[in-house]
Design a protein that fits this description.
Elements: H1 2-11, H2 17-34, E1 61-69, H3 72-75, H4 78-88, E2 93-96, H5 105-113, E3 117-121, H6 133-150, E4 154-156, E5 174-175, E6 197-200, E7 207-210, H7 218-224, H8 231-243, E8 246-250, E9 256-257, E10 267-268, H9 269-282, E11 287-289, H10 292-298
Parallel strand pairs: 1-2, 1-8, 1-11, 2-3, 3-4, 4-5, 5-7, 9-10
Antiparallel strand pairs: 6-7
Length: about 300
């Protein structure tokens, strides 16, 4: 599988983007029926981990919003998205690719000043970060320098590629590179939980927290599946609330249309607003909207035994 993935990312630049998406749409359409027993809901993922105490202040569930900023176009939409969220009473994290486009220091400062969080999203988003341990470790040095410069606590790998053991080489408090269940991802091994879990370094008390995303990503939902509403999001969200878990979503500014006329590879921001208002209206005062960095600080207190590992 690793060899096939490496070959794909070598030839990917030669395949027109529109044809890549066309092929993925066809594949997803065929796969969707086959995966209905494990997606969007995997029942076993709702099992509470051993020692689970619950969310602070008696909240039913956590509601965590994250954004991966893929290209300059998404970078330039970040403030508008942050303003929209702030007006609705939410906070979120923005994860930037350090060496794919110019990440404005002014933008980072403005987001942080407004109560949002900055994270690192890979290094250059070429699909090769996990191609070998040697490559990962070489890039980890650079990634760590950006984590330090940006005072960032968290990381998410492009395309949700992950090796939780290698990620120990990053100087982070938490990682966002996994999901509970998402068979449509290139690396489709899900964590099978809607709760945070600790990843400790072998023979050490050091480690980081893993926060899997639990709502399908916007690109999969609106670009590949071509959905026109948020029903899949709300169905899964209601289930997570019932289980008392963590609703964690990744929405890309790149794919948002703010002018009401979505271009190619865009969807109306109103769909995202609809989700935020759905949570506000149906679950007022029942959810904990928290930044990932804040959750990493509180995570030990969510378990009766600090530093709870995933079995």
């Amino acid at each position: 599988m690793r060899t096939m993935k490496r070959i794909f990312y070598i030839i990917k630049p030669l395949i027109p983007r529109s044809f890549q998406i066309f092929l993925r749409q066809k594949l997803v359409a065929k796969q969707k029926e086959n995966y209905k027993n494990i997606w969007p809901i995997l029942e076993k993922a709702g099992e509470k981990p051993d020692g689970w105490v619950g969310w602070p202040n008696g909240k039913k569930f956590a509601f965590i919003l994250t954004h991966d900023v893929e290209l300059k176009g998404g970078h330039d939409k970040c403030l508008r998205l942050a303003l929209l969220e702030k007006e609705l009473g939410f906070v979120s994290s923005f994860n930037f690719v350090p060496e794919r486009y110019n990440v404005s220091p002014e933008l980072r400062k403005e987001l942080e000043k407004s109560g949002f969080e900055i994270g690192v999203h890979g290094l250059n988003h070429d699909g090769k970060l996990f191609a070998s341990k040697k490559i990962f470790n070489e890039r980890a040095t650079k990634i760590n320098s950006y984590l330090l410069e940006w005072k960032a606590a968290g990381f998410r790998a492009p395309a949700m590629h992950h090796n939780l053991e290698w990620i120990h080489n990053l100087k982070i408090k938490y990682d966002l590179s996994t999901f509970d269940t998402d068979p449509f991802e290139p690396q489709s091994d899900g964590m099978e939980t809607i709760f945070p879990f600790r990843v400790s370094k072998k023979d050490s008390d050091q480690g980081y927290w893993e926060f899997p995303y639990t709502l399908v990503q916007d690109f999969t939902l609106f670009m590949l599946m071509k959905e026109k509403n948020i029903n899949i999001w709300t169905k899964k969200l209601d289930w997570i609330v019932e289980k008392g878990g963590m609703v964690l979503l990744n929405v890309h500014p790149d794919y948002l249309s703010f002018d009401g006329k979505p271009r190619k590879e865009e969807f109306s921001v109103q769909l995202y607003v609809d989700l935020l208002k759905y949570v506000q209206n149906k679950y007022a005062n029942q959810f904990l909207n928290i930044l990932p960095c804040e959750l990493a600080l509180k995570a030990d207190s969510l378990f009766s035994t600090p530093g709870k590992e995933r079995k």
